């Protein structure tokens, strides 16, 4: 299995992190993309990748943290990207309170240009900004290797256009919530060669009644354990009417094609 998107460096997972090193490979995890989201957490991603061989580091300025960026954020990010890494999590978000879509677009477009120039795999976040994202992607260079629309929750009718631009789409265990039937229907139809699977741990946990790895943060809110990659694989395989082994094989090929690892 391959986890195409998570944040297991997060301090919220600190009490369990030491167990991940052996537990996740024992479950069948081969590689995981760990995404930094702001200047403050990029060093933690780098440190984790140096310690854990199955971690692929990814660094980016997430739209939620655009307003917190320092004047030197571009130079700082480039220093991390000079290592063997991906770029992300980057993107657009009109859901977050106080969003500045103009600033988000500026930061996203610059990071996308770096990804295209260096042909880095890029992980893209988008909530309630699909039209704006489409306009940027179709009018700017993108990495020739493609990009990931993580936990894709956009319209079904936009999928072919995004594929034409190079998109991959990752299925999240969060889509097992009853209200996410639309997302499940979309992932039943996405071409096999464009499928990936993710956890987004510690966020986007599956429903409590089917969560085999329930954990909670200090505020008692549920967290998503990265071992739920198994739940995500089993759910997507069932949704598409194939075996988990077949899904493992095709996503391994897709992961290698996009992330080169």
What are the main properties of this structure?
261 residues, alpha/beta, TIM Barrel, eight-stranded parallel sheet, two-stranded antiparallel ribbon
Tell me about this structure:
- The chain has 261 residues and is of the alpha/beta class.
- It contains nine helices and ten strands.
- Helix 8 (229-240) crosses helix 9.
Task: Annotate the secondary structure layout.
Blueprint: E1 2-6, H1 14-27, E2 31-35, H2 42-51, E3 55-59, H3 73-81, E4 86-93, H4 101-118, E5 122-127, H5 130-139, E6 147-149, H6 159-165, E7 167-171, H7 181-189, E8 195-197, E9 215-216, E10 222-223, H8 229-240, H9 244-259
Parallel strand pairs: 1-2, 2-3, 3-4, 4-5, 5-6, 6-7, 7-8
Antiparallel strand pairs: 9-10
Helix pairs in contact: 8-9
Strand order, main sheet: write it out: 1-2-3-4-5-6-7-8
Q: What is the radius of gyration?
A: 17 Å
Q: Determine the CATH superfamily.
A: Metal-dependent hydrolases
Q: Write down the domain tally.
A: 1
User: Would you count the extended β strands for me?
Assistant: 10
The biggest beta sheet reads: 8 strands, parallel
Basic shape: globular
DSSP strand (E) fraction? 15-25%
CATH topology name, in short, is TIM Barrel
Mean pLDDT: 97
Query: What are the low-pLDDT stretches, counting only 5+ consecutive residues below 50?
Result: none
Category from helices, strands and their pairing: alpha/beta
Straight-line distance between termini: 13 Å
Highest CATH level, the class = Alpha Beta
Number of helices: 9
**Portion of residues in helices?**
40-55%
Element order, helices and strands? EHEHEHEHEHEHEHEEEHH
The appropriate CATH architecture is Alpha-Beta Barrel
């Amino acid at each position: 299995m391959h986890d195409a998107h998570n944040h297991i460096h997060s301090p919220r997972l600190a009490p369990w992190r030491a167990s991940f090193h052996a537990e996740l490979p024992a479950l069948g995890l081969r590689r995981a993309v760990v995404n930094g989201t702001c200047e403050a957490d990029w060093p933690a991603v780098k440190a984790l990748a140096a310690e854990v061989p199955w971690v692929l580091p990814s660094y980016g300025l997430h739209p939620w943290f655009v307003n917190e960026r320092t004047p030197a954020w571009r130079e700082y990010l480039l220093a991390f990207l000079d290592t063997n890494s991906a770029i992300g999590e980057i993107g657009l978000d009109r859901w977050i309170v106080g969003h500045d879509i103009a600033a988000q677009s500026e930061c996203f477009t610059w990071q996308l240009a770096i990804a295209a120039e260096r042909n880095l795999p890029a992980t893209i976040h988008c909530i309630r900004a699909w039209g704006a994202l489409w306009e940027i992607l179709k009018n700017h260079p993108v990495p020739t290797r493609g990009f990931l629309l993580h936990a894709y929750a956009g319209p079904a009718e936009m999928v072919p256009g995004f594929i034409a631009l190079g998109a991959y789409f990752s299925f999240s265990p969060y889509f097992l919530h009853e209200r996410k039937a639309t997302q499940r229907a979309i992932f039943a139809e996405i071409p096999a060669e464009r499928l990936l699977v993710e956890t987004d741990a510690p966020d986007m946990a599956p429903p409590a009644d089917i969560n085999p790895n329930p954990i909670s943060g200090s505020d008692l809110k549920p967290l998503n354990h990265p071992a739920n990659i198994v739940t995500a694989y089993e759910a997507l395989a069932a949704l598409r009417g194939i075996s988990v082994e077949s899904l493992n094989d095709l996503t391994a090929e897709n992961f290698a094609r996009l992330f080169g690892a």
